[in-house]
């Protein structure tokens, strides 16, 4: 072996420089992307935390421009009610559609059409869902009243439905066909294969998808403004107009009154925390599954 | 073949050790513990869309015998056995023509329920596929629960099935562990236990050892030899030595057609067809 020619060529200095430049560029890009996220959290905490107190969560907005503006109790309760109902609507329907698409429809023309429409629905701006419910349910005073909490919930459910369906479909497709075959070959009817084998295997992933959709819906303002509107008092009556955190923030943040703007920050922080709790819960539940 | 009602026959008795059967052709066959049922394939064609993967096969799986199906990759042997328990039609665009008779009853008859067909004709797949969300116990019980006949004494039936798959001694202390935590060979025997728990008439095995090491393969082969005492068995295999070791009769397939079927000894020593001879002597495939 002669010392003059090593068996493997060395990395050229040009190659090394290019590599370093590319790495630096990617690193810088990541930092740039993270900066706004950090700033949002920073300002939320800085401006929102001082607004928080026991009273902030336990009193309704007073509606007074001067004097004590009150808290966000009605908005927090309203968001939980509306989003809860929206989940009860969009979750089962979305999972049902996904089961149809993966287990029955597969590549049929109808299933492909449904998939296409779901993709289109994902791209529909949220305000359009609000307007749709406004025209079909609010203006026509369906159920006896105009604005109502349940109508807001339907608007949010429409928004969440394509997200739930698409994510559940992806997860169901990940369940290996060998499991379906194993169960079918035992002589199990298809519905039992789905209930006992396919769904349990996909459950954590489906749950994560549902909670992601819920988190997305919880932050929507536009569909609620024309459906549940902005009110002061707390209510558990889904027939009545209902307050919500995004609507409350929307109403407060434009006011020429520092105490109201401060309440908007506090409410925004509360909304982010609510969604964070959802997400952490979904992670915990997904982590507990026995699949892999 | 006698067609006594199956229920009156003693089911798999695992307490007695069954000696490995010696292939002495002159010996009269010992009476099986449980009469299996015969399968007859009558001019079976199988299609994937427009492609014809099986081109008119006539073949019998005699009761309480092991029939091996050998042939090069893509010759349609897996497709053929999947036609027997109507699993072929689960693939989009796939269809079957011809008749498959289980003791004279056509499993493709209009009044035949594919679910009932699959309960009567069990299947073991190439890759072990225990249900990942279930424990060892639940995997075996799943066969009974999924078919809606839980019945009494679930524990006893699970134990019997695990003993029947000679897995009981290895897993009796960890029945609540996930099925996927077992070794590959144990998983495959778990799948066999799951299949025999529902007490089928016939067991189809689609290359059951191709994902296993030689030791685990040997265990499965010994098991097949025991199982034929109670079941009719068809095994698809890539491995000609395996066919020679376990099968009473061997069928050779080529390009979707059945070339030859004969007692295993004859196929490997004195085949009638030149193509069979070329294949078993390693000239192609």
Description:
The complex is a heterodimer of chains A (292) and B (285). Chain A is built from eleven helices and no strands. The longest helix of chain A has 36 residues, at 13-48. Chain A has a single domain, classed as MetI-like fold (Orthogonal Bundle), CATH 1.10.3720. Chain A has 292 residues and is mainly α. By secondary structure, chain B is an alpha/beta fold. In chain B, strand 4 (94-102) and strand 5 (105-106) form a beta hairpin. In chain B, helix 3 packs across helix 4 (154-164), helix 3 (136-146) packs parallel to helix 6 (184-197) and helix 6 (184-197) packs parallel to helix 7 (214-227). The two termini of chain B are 36 Å apart. Chain B has helices at residues 77-84, 114-120, 136-146, 154-164, 168-171, 184-197, 214-227, 240-246, 264-269, 274-280; strands at residues 39-48, 51-61, 66-70, 94-102, 105-106, 121-124, 202-206, 232-236, 249-254, 257-263. Chain B has one domain (36-280): Rossmann fold (3-Layer(aba) Sandwich), CATH 3.40.50.
Overview features:
heterodimer; A: 292 residues; mainly alpha; MetI-like fold; B: alpha/beta; four-stranded antiparallel sheet; 31% helix
């Amino acid at each position: 072996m002669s010392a003059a020619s090593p068996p493997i060529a060395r990395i050229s200095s040009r190659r090394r420089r290019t590599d370093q430049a590319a790495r630096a560029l990617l690193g810088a890009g990541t930092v740039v992307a993270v900066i706004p996220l950090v700033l949002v959290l920073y300002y939320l905490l800085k401006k929102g935390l001082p607004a928080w107190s026991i009273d902030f969560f336990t009193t309704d907005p007073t509606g007074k421009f001067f004097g004590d503006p009150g808290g966000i109790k009605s908005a927090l309760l309203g968001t939980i009610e509306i989003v809860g109902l929206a989940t009860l609507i969009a979750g089962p329907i979305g999972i049902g559609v996904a089961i149809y698409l993966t287990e029955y429809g597969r590549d049929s023309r109808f299933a492909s059409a449904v998939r296409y429409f779901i993709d289109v629905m994902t791209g529909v701006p949220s305000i359009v869902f609000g307007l749709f419910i406004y025209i079909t349910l609010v203006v026509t005073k369906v159920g006896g009243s105009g604005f109502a909490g349940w109508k807001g919930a339907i608007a949010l459910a429409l928004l969440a439905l394509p997200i739930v369906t698409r994510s559940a479909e992806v997860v169901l497709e990940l369940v290996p066909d060998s499991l379906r075959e194993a169960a079918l070959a035992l002589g199990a009817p298809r519905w039992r294969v789905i209930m006992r084998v396919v769904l349990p295997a996909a459950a954590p992933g489906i749950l994560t998808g549902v909670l992601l959709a819920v988190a997305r819906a919880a932050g929507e303002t536009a569909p609620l403004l024309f459906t549940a509107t902005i009110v002061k008092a707390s209510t558990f009556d889904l027939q009545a107009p209902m307050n919500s955190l995004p609507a409350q923030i929307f109403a407060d943040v434009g006011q020429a009154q520092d105490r109201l703007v401060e309440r908007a920050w506090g409410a925004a922080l509360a909304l982010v925390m609510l969604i964070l709790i959802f997400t952490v819960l979904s992670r915990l539940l997904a982590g507990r599954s026995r699949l892999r | 073949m006698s067609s006594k009602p199956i229920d009156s026959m003693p089911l798999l008795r695992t307490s007695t050790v069954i000696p490995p059967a010696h292939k002495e052709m002159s010996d009269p066959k010992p009476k099986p513990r449980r009469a299996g049922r015969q399968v007859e394939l009558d001019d079976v064609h199988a299609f994937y869309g427009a492609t014809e993967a099986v081109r008119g096969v006539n073949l019998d799986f005699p009761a309480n015998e092991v029939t091996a199906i050998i042939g090069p990759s893509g010759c349609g042997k897996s497709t053929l056995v999947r036609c027997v328990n109507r699993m072929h039609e689960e693939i989009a665009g796939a269809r079957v023509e011809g008749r498959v008779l289980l003791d004279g009853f056509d499993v493709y008859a209009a009044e035949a329920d594919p679910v009932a067909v699959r309960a009567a004709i069990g299947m073991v797949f190439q890759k072990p596929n225990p249900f990942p969300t279930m424990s060892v116990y639940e995997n075996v019980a799943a066969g009974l629960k999924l078919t809606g006949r839980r019945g009494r004494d679930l524990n006893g039936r699970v134990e019997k099935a695990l003993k029947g798959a000679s897995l009981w001694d290895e897993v009796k202390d960890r029945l609540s562990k996930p099925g996927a935590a077992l070794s590959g060979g144990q998983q495959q025997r778990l799948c066999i236990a799951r299949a025999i728990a529902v007490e089928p008439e016939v067991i189809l095995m689609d290359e059951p050892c191709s994902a296993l090491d030689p030791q685990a393969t040997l265990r499965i082969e010994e098991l097949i030899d025991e199982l034929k005492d109670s079941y009719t068995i068809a095994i698809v295999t890539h491995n000609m030595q395996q066919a020679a070791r376990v099968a009473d009769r061997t069928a050779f397939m080529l390009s979707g057609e059945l070339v030859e079927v004969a007692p295993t000894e004859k196929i490997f020593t004195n085949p009638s067809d030149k193509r069979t001879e070329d294949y078993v002597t390693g000239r192609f495939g």
